[in-house]
Amino acid sequence: MATRHLIIGGGTAGINAMRTIREEESTRSEITLVSAERPYSRMVLPYYLDRSIAESHVFTATAKVLADWGVKTHLGRRAAALDAKASVCTLDDGAKVEYDDCLIATGSSAVRAPVPGADGPGVHSFWTLDEARGVIAAIKPGSHVVMVGAGFIAFTILNSILSLGATLTIVELAPRILPRMIDDTGAKLVEDWLTKHGVTIRTGARLARIEDTKGRKRLRFAGASDIACDVVIMATGIKTNLDWLKGAGVTINRGIVVDDRLRSSVPNVYAAGDVAEGRDLISGKGDVHAIEPTAQEHGRVVGSNMAGKDVRYRGSLIINIVEVCHLDVASFGAWDDNRADAAAGLRADRPAYRKLLFSGDRLTGAIILGRSGDIWTSNDVGMLKGLVQTGVALGRFKEHLKKHPFDVKPAFIASRTTHTLLPETILGRPSKAPGDTPVAV
Ligand SMILES: Cc1cc2nc3c(=O)[nH]c(=O)nc-3n(C[C@H](O)[C@H](O)[C@H](O)COP(=O)(O)OP(=O)(O)OC[C@H]3O[C@@H](n4cnc5c(N)ncnc54)[C@H](O)[C@@H]3O)c2cc1C
To answer: What is the pLDDT at residue 1?
Structure first.
């Protein structure tokens, strides 16, 4: 069994993997962590932006936790090359780390729209802690912020920007907002809601360049008027951090292709989190899910396998949940499957909207949105996620849901979804309390 584990990347996947190795191994192994940044959670950065948490609260594994786990660290260092044949990783300072097995968990980075001025001063991304610090320093009460891109990440920081007293304009190239999260009907409701809450939205907007004018920024568009502002945030997508792996002999498609043990094409090299192209729970096909739950689950499963257990991963569910100006918006699984048997319910006045997608008598995808204050919105978000996640047979309750998409509870209870969910831990054993480490189980 491997005794020298190398973990590359100290984000959600890497930290969960190390913790699981320590929980699951029978004899104490050697763990080395190489990470470009100190371990922290990117997902909590919006709460740091709006000052609801201090910067110290974003860190997931402190120096003390890593010392307690007996992890040898190379923090602030990058993996620069992998010699998979010799099982050696070279770092950006030339140091070499030998391993028996290795986990690649280097996550992703923000990508900016390829327009002139996109890298100029006053133009920010919001993906890393450093980038979050840049945005915090830039936004003042009364600032006009333009967010380029109306995807999931833009929506995770929307409330924080408004809470800082800034005015917000969102520009999006696609004809609607949240193009990879909800359908046209849902997007229209969210757009109307945000407009009512003072956010300006421009869709179908092709940004041509960003210029500096007297200390401010001017965004120029093809065929539309300019927008002048104080701060620009580019939320125009992400790319996997895999450039350094070129020539290593590890098969890469959209991400590192992994099997159901999260092993790559090289048997002693694993991958997890944003960089891994693993099994999608619904389609059964390989996909990259750059979301926190996938990074956590991958980390748990891979850690267990690296510790010598044999844990098969059943696949990850795509989960998108955001709350904007007290409107909950969520989608799960195959929410955009054109071939699915679908039913929708709309109450535009509240607003509230559901779309349910079935394959046979199983729910394989869902879109839900409604006011956060509506108790049935909050409850149904969880219940719909549970129904998609478990894939329980709905029997006659499928027809009930199709006729009454706002009445989810009877189907949830009758199909015994809780009974299926409760004993289900990702490692197939009773869940353990996280003890004194801040990493979720
Ligand atoms: C603002 C924001 C909000 C988000 N909100 C949500 C949310 O609400 N729900 C959700 O599901 N997801 C959310 N996400 C996405 C989620 O944070 C990521 O999917 C998750 O962090 C991925 O974990 P990971 O371990 O794969 O990678 P990361 O957490 O990105 O960690 C990768 C680590 O690898 C290091 N690294 C990179 N390259 C190298 C190298 N060459 N050598 C060594 N180390 C390297 C990095 O410094 C980093 O420490 C959010 C992300 C952001 C930025």
So the answer is: 62
SS3 content of the chain, % helix, strand, coil (to 5): 25, 30, 45
Is the sign of the CA dihedral 199, 202, 203, 205 positive or negative? negative
Query: 437 pLDDT exceeds 60?
Result: no
**Where are the domains positioned within the chain?**
4-109+239-316, 123-236, 326-421
Check if 293 has its Cβ closer than 6 Å to any atom of ligand 1. yes
Assign domain 123-236 to its CATH architecture: 3-Layer(bba) Sandwich (3.50)
pLDDT tens for each residue of 28-65? 999 999 999 999 999 999 999 999 999 999 999 999 99
Helix (H, G, I), strand (E, B) or coil at 65: helix
Nearest residue CA, atom 31 of ligand 1? Answer: 11
- Ligand 1: residue of 66, 239, 291 to mutate (most ligand atoms within 8 A of CB) is 291
Domain 4-109+239-316 has CATH 3.40.50.1980: no
Closest approach atom of ligand 1 to CA 16? 25
pLDDT in tens, 226-236: 999 999 999 99
Would the CATH topology of 123-236 be identical to that of 326-421?
Answer: no
| Residue-wise pLDDT tens digits, 38-48 | 999 999 999 99
CATH superfamily, domain 326-421, is FAD/NAD-linked reductase, C-terminal dimerisation domain (3.30.390.30)
Decide: 127 in ligand 1 pocket, CB within 6 A: yes
Query: 154 C-alpha vs ligand 1 centroid, how far in Å?
Result: 15
- Most informative mutation of 43, 89, 147, 318 for ligand 1 (most atoms within 8 A of CB): 43
* Structure confidence at residue 440 (pLDDT): 42
Say what the pLDDT of residue 168 is: 98
DSSP for 169-236, written as a single string: EEE-SSSSSSTTTS-HHHHHHHHHHHHHTT-EEE-S--EEEEEEETTEEEEEETTEEEEEESEEEE--
Residue nearest to atom 37 of ligand 1 (CA): 106
- The pTM is what? 0.95
- Residue located nearest, by CA, to atom 53 of ligand 1: 127
